[in-house]
Every structure is written in structure tokens, then in C-alpha cells.
Amino acid sequence: MLFGLFQKRPTLPPIYLHNTATGRKEEFKSLQSGVVTMYSCGPTVYDHIHIGNLRAYLLPDLLTRLFLHYGFKVNSTVNLTDFGHLTDDADAGEDKMMKGMRREGYEITLENMLAFPVPYIESFKSDNLDFGNLPPSQYARASDYIAEQIKLIETLEQKGYTYRISDGVYFEVSKFPAYGVLGNIDLEKIRAGARVETNPEKHHPADFALWKNGDLGWDSRWGKGFPGWHIECAAMAFATLGKQIDVHTGGEDLMYTHHNGEIAQAECATGKKYVGYWMHNAFVTMNDQKVAKSAGNGFRLQHLSDQGFAPADYRFWLLQSHYRTTANFTWEALEGARAGLLRLRRMVYEELSEVVPGKIDQKYQERVLRAVADDLDTPTAIATLFELAKDQKITPANKLATIQFVDSLLALGLGKGAAEGRAELGVVEVLPTELVKLLQDREVARQTRDFVRADEIRDEITARGYLIEDGSDGAKLRRK
Length: 480
Ligand code: AMP
Ligand code: ZN
Known about the structure:
- Helix content is 44%, strand content 19%.
- The protein is of the alpha/beta class.
- It has three domains: 31-281, Rossmann fold; 309-317 and 328-423, Up-down Bundle (Four Helix Bundle (Hemerythrin (Met), subunit A)), CATH 1.20.120; 433-479.
- The chain has a five-stranded parallel sheet, with helices on both faces.
- Helix 8 (229-241) packs across helix 9 (255-270) and helix 11 packs across helix 12 (331-351).
- The longest helix is centred in the last third of the chain and has 21 residues, at 331-351.
- The model has no long low-confidence stretch (mean pLDDT 94).
- Bound molecules: adenosine monophosphate and zinc ion (ZN).
- Adenosine monophosphate is lined by residues 41, 43-44, 52-53, 55-56, 250-251, 253-254, 281, 283-284, 290-292.
- Adenosine monophosphate (AMP) is lined by residues 41, 43-44, 52-53, 55-56, 250-251, 253-254, 281, 283-284, 290-292.
């Protein structure tokens, strides 16, 4: 395939990403040539993840696919919070892990706290895979990085950014004048509006725990206890990716407290800018309420599959909204997404199943790439995909190659082998003779207007595990 080597590679449009830190779309430039480092805040593993969480892992997946297409090596981390995340992000409320352990009748011990989340970690990883996300370079479990977290707290202590009170070590936000860049936090307003019950020993209500003392946890020079939630992410980003990283992602709720906390710790410890591009996804809601375990609407992929929806149907639905706009989930909308994706799957695995992929159509490639590189404009990419599917001017071979290219960026399950794609659609490759006979008998019954008999035959066919599709060129069977 020497010819392929000399084919002109279309020039790649620049990548623009919306940076929450500046409120603008900026052209992406990696810190290190040819490599992108990316950190994504992972789940607190006290329960299964829900369909809202999946949106937060779709974001780094789309970025990874785009960066890989541009020839970058991607080093990415998703962390697993397995201690110390309180139900209130501002160091108050119940510890989520302990809440989960109590729910399941575990005795609260450190050993149990390490064992209890294992099934949830596994189900998170497998939901991610089923959803079409590439695994990150590493999943980092917070309890595996205790020494790194302690060391980072010590560095901040030595540099004078911390103070001790009765329940632990705190970061003093007023020592970091740049505090609150994400979401434009005004420290004065926070002070003025602080609720009376916030920890009175804190110097400022926005000060946050670096170390919390308690009966459970690890030993340190500050006593037994846990590192705080924000120090976990900064320490693991440092340990797995380096002191400065290109992209950091998370749901929009994380930006105010958690990510501003991460910036403060990281930048005070190193004196360098921590993250090049902060990216935050908007929520998935239901009836305009955030999807959340506590709201009782925290559906999982498994719930969708119980209703007959594949993970790709949900992914396709999500991709029809831009990641920075709220996506309000309804079953009807999911139904619509499934129908749209089915049209594409039938085109690829039925109409084009005998076709050998040809060349990627450059015009469509450029349009899709331009959309995805424009701060992940997936709605435009999908509209373009439908336009391509309908375009009679593109040869079937080139159409297939181009759809497969789009799929490498969006992962909608359109790039599988023909046999797998056809089997999933229930395409019947060889119809058993008795079914051919039943189908013929039904046709005769219909033509002689014996509808009772025709219905009986339909029921028999259905009972054998087939669905009848009546079309302009006669009836076809599909496996259920
Ligand atoms: P958590 O386990 O609550 O820390 O959440 C893990 C990730 O999912 C974080 O990035 C959250 O911001 C994100 N997330 C949680 N709920 C939703 C939602 N309803 N829609 C989108 N992202 C969410
Ligand atoms: Zn985090």
C-alpha cells in the first residue's frame, strides 16, 4: 500500500477548547510537544455510577479520541475517591464512604473501607467500557496515594499556607490571592454570606481541610485521619501526570470548591500554573432536576438496558447536546435517539455490509473534524453524519469509510465488523426452510384475505423468536 503513504493528509483544523478559567474558547497547545496530559475527577466509589456521571467521562473520552486523531500520545488519569468525600463539598456533612458502608451493614473499619468499594470500582470500569469510553491510561485509587498526599500537605505547611485547628489542618485561602478563578468566586462575599454554623475555628469560610483527624484512617504527624478531598486530586495528578497538566475535566458542580481548591494547593506548592485548560460538563437532568443518587433518579446503564436501550443509544442521545448545555433526559428522547442510531446501523450493517471500505471523503472528514475540534461540537458532527448517510453522490465504499472515520471520533458502534453488527441487528443470514414456508403461507393467507390465519402464522413466527417486517419488497424476518 505504498500509494496510501503518499496520499495527501488533509490539514487538521486547530483545536479550540472552552476554558472555564478564562471563560473563552482557546486554541489548544500542549505543554509538551506530541503529548497531552489529562486528569478527570472520578467517582466516589460508594455506589454504582449513574447516567449523569457518564457524561463526565464522555468528555475526556471525546477529547482523547480527538487528540489521538491529531497524533498526540495521551496520558490520562481518572481517580477513584475511596475516602474522605463528605456529602457537603465544603468539609461538612456525612462521609460518603461511611454512609455507603452503613447502608450495606459493614462494620466501619479501615480494612472494610478498602474492601467495600471493590465491586463499585469494577462496575464503574465496566459501565465506562460498555458506554464506549476508552479506558484512561490509569485509574488512580486515592488510598494508594496516601504518602503523596501527606507529602503535599507538608510542602504547603512548610511554605506557610496552612494552619491547624482542633479537627485538622486547613488551607488558608487568603494566602493565595488568585483563589477562585473558576466561577469567579468572591471571597469577601463568601465571608459576608457565610452560615453561622460553619466551623468557627476556620479563619475564612472558604478555607478547606487538607487533613481531617478522626478515629479511622492513617497515621501522620497531625494525628490519625484522612487527607481532604481536594488534596487527593492534586497529589494524584502530580504523581501520575506531572506538576503541570494540559487538561483537567469534571462536572460543573466540581469547579467552585473542589477545583478551586486543587488550583490553590497545586500552585502554592509548585509556584507554577497547574492546568492549561479547565473543562466542565453541564448536568444531565430529569424533570429539570439534576440526576443524582440522592434525588432518587440516579438511573444506571443497567436500568436503561432493562427498558431495552443499549448504552450506544444513550451515548447517541448525549452527543446530540453540546457538553456545556444541560441535557434533560426523557424516555421519549432516548427512544428518538435509538431510532436515529438504528437508521445509521442499518445503513452500515445492512445496506453497506457487503461493501469494502474505500477512501474517506475529505469534505465530510473536514466538516466533522472542524465540528469536533470546535470545543466538541458533537451536535453538528451528528447532523453532518446524517447528511453523509443520505448523500447519493458519495460512493458506498467511500461512504462506509467516512462513517467509520466519524465513528472513531464518536464511538457509536458503527465501526464493528459486519458479522457482529448484523448479529446485533438480528439480521437473519440463512432463513430455515420451515420459516420460509411459514412466511409464504402467511403471504397466501393475506392475499386471500384470511386475516385470522395470517395472524396465527404471525404469532407462530414470533413464538419462534423472529420479528416480521413488512416492506415494499415483501416481508422480512429479523431475530428478536
Ligand atoms: P461524584 O461521584 O458525585 O463525585 O461524581 C463524579 C462525576 O460525575 C463528577 O465529575 C460530577 O461532577 C459528575 N456528575 C455528577 N452528577 C452529574 C450529572 N447529573 N450530570 C453530569 N455530570 C454529573
Ligand atoms: Zn477531583
